[in-house]
Design a protein that fits this description.
This protein has three domains: 5-85, Winged helix-like DNA-binding domain superfamily/Winged helix DNA-binding domain (Arc Repressor Mutant, subunit A), CATH 1.10.10; 91-157 and 263-290, D-Maltodextrin-Binding Protein, domain 2 (3-Layer(aba) Sandwich); 159-260, 3-Layer(aba) Sandwich (D-Maltodextrin-Binding Protein, domain 2), CATH 3.40.190.10. The chain is 42% helix and 20% strand. It contains ten helices and 13 strands. It has helices at 5-17, 20-27, 31-45, 61-85, 98-115, 167-172, 196-202, 219-227, 241-245, 276-290, and strands spanning 50-53, 56-59, 91-96, 120-125, 139-143, 152-155, 159-165, 186-189, 214-216, 232-236, 250-251, 259-261, 264-268. The strands form three sheets. Strands 7, 8, 9, 10, 11 and 12 form a six-stranded mixed β-sheet that branches. Strands 4-3-5-13-6 form a five-stranded mixed β-sheet. A two-stranded antiparallel ribbon has the order 1-2. The longest helix has 25 residues, at 61-85. The chain starts with a helix and ends with a helix.
Length: 291
């Protein structure tokens, strides 16, 4: 069962504007007509989507869950329509985790544009995985454990995770063995697959740090903090490549004290490989990862 598009549009507009009258103005309808569309949708679903009170309109828990997918689906329809109206036929939609998009993909994306000038690339980034069922993305670059059923999963590269710090920080702190790191500020990226206690254990250090000087939820912020000399970050040399190449960061120890992981994956339904744009991006991504 697919509800009428007019009802879905009314639901999305009310949820976004938090007002029946404002949604009605946006949709060029009367408030009564908008209310009727939502009532029809709630009847079809057998659920209440809004709580109405003197304070205004609020989504119910079911309404909030439904809005996430409906809004994405309407956005996909709008994007497809805009592309078609403007004669854009070779559009590729790619989603990536924020740090990967900023630190690894963006410095290289110009080479893809030069090689494939006929492909219009739309890149977005967030920590929320794309929902392929509603057709909002062609490819999703995800970070984490590869447990995504019914999708093609391809690791992008093997990453080395090791302690990184600025040259000035290393010069002013005696850091010769892992235990020395317990005496300096440590920076933690809380979403990383490898955390400081695991690294210390792998290096033979029985006790790990009691506290972290700084905690971030993005690798890019953890690396930036290390560049500013605020402490030592345990990060991927792949994501930190630009900082390492420019000399803003240096590994504290050699590669023997690094951990190797496969943490970034390009994910897609197998049916998407029928599109030439998808195949070209995948081929380009593999070549970039090898270099």
């Amino acid at each position: 069962m697919i509800p009428p598009l007019t009802s879905l549009q009314a639901f999305e507009a009310i949820a976004r504007r938090k007002s029946f009258s404002l949604a009605a103005t946006e949709l060029h309808l009367t408030p009564s007509a908008v209310s009727h569309q939502v009532a029809r949708l709630e009847e079809l679903l057998g659920l209440r989507l809004f709580e109405r009170s003197t304070r205004g309109v609020e989504l119910t828990p079911a309404g909030r869950s439904y809005l996430q997918r409906v809004a994405s689906a309407l956005g996909a329809i709008k994007s497809a329509t805009d592309d078609l109206r403007h004669g854009v036929q070779d559009t590729l939609y790619v989603h990536a985790s924020p740090s990967f998009a900023s630190l690894w993909l963006m410095p290289r994306i110009g080479r893809f544009a030069q090689r494939h000038p006929g492909i219009s690339l739309v890149l977005s980034a967030s920590h929320i995985h794309s929902d392929f069922q509603i057709g909002e993305m062609d490819l999703d670059i995800r970070y984490g454990l590869p447990n995504w059923p019914d999708l093609e999963i391809e690791p992008i590269f093997v990453e080395r995770i090791m302690p990184l710090a600025s040259p000035d920080f290393i010069a002013t702190h005696p850091l010769e063995k892992p235990a020395d790191l317990l005496q300096v500020p440590l920076i933690q990226s809380v979403v990383n697959m490898v955390q400081w206690p695991e690294w210390f254990a792998r290096c033979g250090q029985k006790s790990g740090p009691e506290r972290m000087a700084l905690r971030f939820d993005r690798a890019m912020m953890s690396l930036d903090a290390a560049v500013q000399g605020l402490g030592v970050a345990l990060e991927s040399t792949s994501l930190g490549h630009a900082h390492l190449a420019a000399g803003r960061l240096k590994p504290i120890f050699d590669e023997a004290m690094s951990l190797e992981v496969k943490a970034h994956f390009v994910v897609y339904p197998s049916r998407h490989t029928s599109r030439p744009e998808v195949l070209r991006f995948l081929q380009w991504l593999r070549e970039e990862a090898q270099t």
